[in-house]
Amino acid sequence: MRKILLIIKREYLTRVRTKGFIIGTIIVPLIGLGSVLLVVFLVGHTATQSLRIVIVDNSGSLAPAIVHGLNGKLADGQPQFAVEETVSRPASLDDLQQDLRTRINGEKLDAYLLIPQDLDQSFELHMRNPDNFSLVGPLSSAVDQAVISSRLDRRGVHLNDIQTVLKSTDLKLLKVSEAGESVEKGQGIAIAIALVVLLYTALLMYGIITMRSVIEEKTTRTMEVLISSVRPFELLAGKILGVAAVAFTQFAIWMTSTALLFSFGVLASLGMTRNSPLAGVHVPISLVIYACVFFVGGYFMYASMFAAIGSACSNEQDAQQLQWLAMAPLVFCMIIYGVILNDPASRTAVILSEIPFFAPVLMALRISLQMPPAWQIALSLILLVLTTVAVMYASAKIYRVGVLMYGKRPSLVELVRWLRYT
Amino acid sequence: MDAIVLENVTKSYDSVTAVNAVSLKVRSGAILGLLGPNGAGKTTTIRMIMNILVPDEGSIRVLGELVTHSTRDKIGYLPEERGLYPRMKVLEIIVFLAALHGLTQAEAGRRAKEWLDRLGLSEWSDKKLIDLSKGMQQKVQFITSVIHRPPVVILDEPFSGLDPVNAATIQEIMLDMRSQGSTIVLSTHRMEQVERLCDCICLIDKGRNVLDGELRAIKQSYGKNTLHIEFTGSDGFLNHPGIGQITRLITGVEAKLKPGTDPQEILKAAVLSDARITRFELLEPSLSEIFIDRTTRA
């Protein structure tokens, strides 16, 4: 036990002290968070000015309706469009256009709208940057509204009446669960997908870290010295627990900093808490606990598989060819999880989530979508624990033989034979 | 008392028998030279003594106990395949391995500093191992194998890669440990070191113990059957029917006498020939000759 603790301590300290850990834990999330906040900030505070526009009305009647429709506001409360003047039926259209173009090139004007004499003809919008959809969109709909309104008027129908008749219904989505009903705005799916991605990434990442750590001891030939003072099983256990401690530290840092960010109102001040999709997100504490339990079980199973693979290989290149053995079930989870998302209670979903190699990801996913019956959760946990113990036992055997083997990468048949060595 | 006793130890990998019914006793307080050609089974034997590998048959005792995981803390081990965590600091790595052998952190730290001092590595104790030269790394590894003052030490090729000054330092430390009662197993290919250091030898070939015992006794049992002759002029007298194998040296030859040949007759023949004899000496065979003789026998 003392030796296992020593190994955990060394594994933990050497990993936590590396530049890679500091970069991965602190700097990368900071850059990620920073860029999200920057985008939020830029979108909210784009300091555009009102678009200075001249309306040239050849029909002589539509301009007021369009001006009325151009009522959009900028983020700072200024109107989106500033109508400089309205020219009704100009004497010489060519001269006027010449003049307007000069004003646009001189940056004294941003655009001019040309209303045709016959409203069924094309309208023309002349501006320096016609690709600016945030301006073209509102302008185009103001024109549409005005034209439709005028057509309806001619038939003696009022636009407001039509709008009332055509108003679409509002379909509210409600999630029914044992805890009662809650309004569903798609956050449930968002949480479920985030959970799948998080579990998949964490299992894969920490599994591969464990594998690399084993290979490093082999390639640097530290293994034989270690193995002469500790049992292979102690070394394996210490390594897996040491990496687990690193994972725990990493998550603790992330959780704490997220909590701090929220409580100090950094996000609130940027308008991210209200009116944003995140505002409705509520992660039930039971889901967090279940996800942790399944993650821990899954971690021990996958980390020992990765460690066994690492022990069988003499270098990273060999390991890259063998690591699919442990990666395949995880990748399969990523491919199949859409099926469970569609119908978390289907027979396929139940069976898949009971298979121990998929349970850490897929059962957690089902729990987040719709609480499965207690017996299904219990059964999958029991199967997961039993399989984890079996996998760790087998991995320890492969590990014991593998750590002293150098040279050719073993075939699958050889790996199976190693299981039978005493 | 014997520090290490192997009885009828056999170990096979799939189809190859790496160690075949080897029995061996290592006297307590002696330095044993474990010799043998490449692939003879030395490393497998050592790994079985370290309980890294378990023999298929036979038993191994260290200090009277059958080997288990707990006997390993009584053995210091310098493996042939050397290496330590390259990115750990010298002092940290020594303390870590010493703690794995049961020393407290404080005691491990104290002894580590003493050893680094003794081997002239004090100023490197805060450097990463990867920043050290090969020879320095090897000295660090040597420290990790003896820091817990084990009564039995196994050193697999301890001198490879060391310059003569460092090799001499390690030899001195080995003789020191011997005088304090440690038993040392030294596996090496360098015969002159074995002749200088070892009390007894064990020669392993193709997995079998072909020769073991006190070095002096073994040499005497071979008898004085080798002539060392230095001369100038014709070497025709070497065609004498009493002379067997001839090894040519820069200054002369080493000639093995056939059984029953009187060295005096060779001398007579040499004097009568037109060679000028400058040296004529009757010798015990060198360890190299014994090694070659034993390992090339059909």
Give an account of the 3D structure.
The complex is a heterodimer of chains A (422) and B (298). In chain A, β3 (111-115) and β4 (124-127) form a beta hairpin. Chain A has 422 residues and is of the alpha/beta class. In chain A, the strands form 2 sheets. A 4-stranded mixed beta sheet of chain A has the order 2-1-3-4, with helices on one face. In chain A, strands 5-6 form a two-stranded antiparallel ribbon. Helices cover 65% and strands 8% of the residues of chain A. Chain A has helices at residues 2-16, 19-44, 63-69, 93-105, 133-154, 159-166, 187-219, 223-227, 232-263, 266-269, 285-312, 316-322, 324-342, 347-354, 359-369, 374-402, 412-419; strands at 51-57, 81-88, 111-115, 124-127, 174-177, 180-183. Chain A has 17 helices and 6 strands. In chain A, α7 runs parallel beside α11 (285-312). The two termini of chain A are 23 Å apart. Chain A has 2 domains: 51-163, D-Maltodextrin-Binding Protein, domain 2 (3-Layer(aba) Sandwich); 185-419, no CATH class. Chain B has a 6-stranded mixed beta sheet, with helices on both faces. A 4-stranded antiparallel beta sheet of chain B has the order 2-1-4-5, covered by helices on one side. A 4-stranded antiparallel beta sheet of chain B has the order 12-13-11-14, covered by helices on one side. The mean pLDDT of chain B is 88. Chain B is built from 9 helices and 14 strands. Chain B folds into 2 domains: 2-219, Rossmann fold (3-Layer(aba) Sandwich), CATH 3.40.50; 223-296, Alpha-Beta Plaits (2-Layer Sandwich), CATH 3.30.70. Chain B starts with a strand and ends with a helix. Chain B is an alpha/beta fold. Chain A binds chain B through residues 3, 6-7, 10, 14, 216-217, 220-222, 224-231, 404, 406, 422, and chain B through 47, 50, 52-54, 69, 72-73, 75, 77, 79, 81-88, 96-97, 99-101, 141, 144-145.
